[in-house]
Amino acid sequence: MMMRNSKNISQALVPSFAVGQLEILKSLTPRRLLRGKFVSKWIVLLIDLCLIATSLLIAYTLQTKLAVYALSFIDYYKALIGVLIFSLIGHLIFRPHEGIIRHTGIYDIKVLFFARSLSLVLNLTFIGFVAPRLHWDAYAVPFNVAAIHYFLSLYLLIQFRLGIRFIFNQGKRARRKPKIIIYGSGESGRLTYDAVSPFYDVTAFLDDNSSLKGKILKGIKILNFDTDMDTLVEKYDISQLIISIQNISSYKKREIIDKCLKYKVEVKVVPPIDHWLNGQLTTAQIKNVKIEELLGRDVITLNKDIIASEVNGKHILVTGAAGSIGSELVRQILKFSPAHVILLDQAETPLHNLELEIRKQVNDKNIQCTALLADIRDQVLLRKVFTDHPIEIIFHAAAYKHVPAIELNPLQALQVNILGTRNVADLADEFRVQKMVFISTDKAVNPTNVMGATKRVAEMYVQSKNKISQTAYITTRFGNVLGSNGSVIPLFKRQIEQGGPITVTHPDVTRYFMTIPEACQLVLDAGVMGKGGEIFVFDMGDSVKIVDLAEKMIQLSGLTPGKDIKIEFTGLRPGEKLYEELLNDQESILPTHHDKIMIARVIEYEYTKISQSIHEMEQKGRSSPDNHEMVLMLKALVPEYISQNSPYDHLVADLKMAPALAR
User: In 3D, which of 347, 387, 357, 352 has the Cα closest to residue 371?
Assistant: First the structure.
């Protein structure tokens, strides 16, 4: 009992500070030090000073050519005092001990050089000036020993850091790292290797240049994609391929991705150099391939000088500016420095977001930008826009475009797609606007739904208006754009994120696809080249089966179609058809200066007659709004409009009662 009390009393008498120090010392076991991520800077400083002391001992031994035991340790210890003081000063000023040793690089070696050089200067000053005057020669190091000591200590300190880094990296390599392939062995491939090599085992470089095959880059063999890809995948457990080449063709990229999907190899791409952070590539910047890249085509070459001459310094109105097409048109137009861009849309939040997005670009180029919350159905408000602003060019992108929704609301489609377009076109004529570019759709060709039929009527009106106006009216017609509002791409992405299933309407349904930037670039080019009255058709490439698109999106997500994510067929929606067309049977095309833009030779209509027909539809919609009556009038106005999978399949217009519109 007495002993226990005395033990407790003795423990109580131990200062808390001492207890804390004892706990710290107990924690500094070799296992904890090796297991910890970072070593205290003071421990590193202590090790550095020990290495400096050791290098001084070696320097003395080398200079006197005596064995270590024959050395006068009294002289050594006296000289060591000054050396350690000067070394400590150099370390405290340049702080080389504060760097993370396992990440030692050029900067750390440079700091070490400065610290040791300062210590050498202080030491030589002491040897040459201070020691002789104060008779401290016993504490001074001979000049030749000081020189040897400087180089030797610098060498040991650098080797200590590199050795720790090597041991750390070897420990990381001991853990199994994913095996990857880098496509491209140029400068971008080398930089990609530097970024990913700490985290991945780069098995090979692939390159199409046959002269590089068999050569070595970064200790790794360069192989050919066409001849060696299959062997690599079969021989090694390849988990990923990184495309590092910046200017790779879309055809080649699709070929690479298709082969990787076949072998279930993940594909990533290196972003353009101007997207790198401070000119440096990191693994976080290497992104997964997007479906847009798989379906996209080679970069469009535009005549930027002609576009600039048409757009620069102009006052431009973009309707539907907050939509997917309208907003991208705004971004493209701003590159050519217009004087004023008017953003018109009836959607408040998207319009506000677009204004915030482009604010810096507008301010940098000193472009006036006005965001107007307005509806193209409101002719009074629309007239005020034209009265307040000297508009020179109009890009009319505002429209209702969701086929199933519009199929059940034809009166709303009349109001926006037909009457709204008429409002914009009429005001363009009244206020002598130079050009109006109307953005139509391939669904206007042989329409099977209300949306397509209303857009076709709008085409007819705009083209006929060109005959009686000084304004040049131009129509552009293209198919689906990837990633637009209502596109299958965002829908499929959400369904994959939710674990499926992906819903496809029909196993045979096909669509043409184009990226939003590509479509808007072609709209700009067509708008510039158009003289008035043309309907421009874009080269949409090959049609894509939607079920194939769904399968590729699942695979690009690292999943297996049918196993991880199921695909369900829901049946065609109201007004939907299996495939889209860019021309009807009575239309043909003419080439232009751009290989992706053609002019459709279509039937033209008299302005007075088409205008009268639209007026009658407007009056009918106001006096006795009835969906079936409205669709019947559309069918009479557009004879090729035949409903499919729609509530109006049974409706057949009396074409004898239809107005003779064609000229």
Answer: 352
- Which range marks the domain in which residue 408 is found? 312-487+520-542+579-637
Q: Which residue has the tokens 């409101």?
A: 378
pTM score > 0.85 for this model? no
Phi then psi dihedrals of residue 20, to 5 deg: -60, -40
Tokens of 8: 């407790």
CA angle 540–544–547, rounded 5-degree value: 155
447 in the same domain as 395: yes
- Which one-letter DSSP state was computed for residue 70? G
Locate all alpha helices (DSSP H) within 534-598, ordered by sequence.
546-556
pLDDT at res. 427 = 96
| Cβ 418 vs Cβ 545: under 8 Å | no
Q: Which H or E run includes 220?
A: strand 220-223
Residue 376 pLDDT > 50: yes
How confident is the model over 10-23, as pLDDT tens digits?
Answer: 343 333 333 333 34
Q: What is the three-class DSSP state of 651?
A: coil
Looking at residue 544, what is its pLDDT?
79
Q: What is the DSSP letter of 410?
A: H
Q: How many domains does the chain have?
A: 3
pLDDT at 6: 41
- H helices, E strands: number in the chain: 25, 22
Tell me 449's DSSP state.
Answer: S
Task: Based on the fold, state whether residues 164 and 185 are members of the same structural domain.
Answer: no
Cα–Cα distance measured from residue 546 to residue 531, given in angstroms and rounded to the nearest whole number: 37
- pLDDT tens for 297-306 read 655 666 777 8
Angle (CA) 183-184-186 rounded to 5° is: 160
Q: How far is CA 589 from the centre of its chain?
A: 36
What is the percent of the chain where pLDDT is above 90? 20
Q: For residue 267, give the H/E element and its range.
A: strand 266-269
Mean pLDDT within 594-616: 85
Both 135 and 191 in one domain: the answer is no
The pLDDT score that the predictor gives to residue 169 is 66
CA-CA distance, 610 to 618, in Å (whole number)? Answer: 12
Quote the CA–CA distance of 51 and 84 in Å, as a whole number. 11
CA 608, CA 464: separation in Å to the nearest integer?
9
CA angle, 536 as apex, 637 and 461 as ends, to 5°? 30
pLDDT band at residue 103 using 50, 70 and 90 as cut-offs: confident
- The Cα 587–Cα 640 span in angstroms is 12
Residues 227 and 260 in one domain: yes
* pLDDT for position 63: 67
DSSP string, 264-282: T-EEEEPPPGGGSBTTB--
Indicate if 162 and 184 belong to the same structural domain: no
